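I am writing to request your help with a piece of structural work I have in hand. Thank you for your consideration; the sequence and its tokens are set out here:
=====
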Amino acid sequence: QVQLESGGGLVQAGGSLRLSCAASGRAFRNYNVGWFRQAPGKEREFVAAITWSGSSTLYADSVKGRFTFSRDNAKNTVYLQMNSLKPEDTAVYYCAADRIYGLRSEPDKYEYWGQGTQVTVSS
């Protein structure tokens, strides 16, 4: 399975970005998907997760109310809409997928990972 992220970039504090993650090969619609991020010198941390159907989502407290996770299974793509961005949101963002565990925040519960996309929020 190949996973791709896109949509990262540079934005000022208070701005918005939308990340997307698309997969080829396997049916992405069967997978629960998570977003994680890793800032320099820090451990990878959970951001958000969505079930295969899109009916349930889970967010880290740090992004709740600002980020929205959605998916379009017809396009084999998930989206992370990020609003009211803060400098502390600066990190490399990773998309991950799993078929077994459902809504989980632990990185080791995800089987497939993307390469990551840089998000930089300037103050």
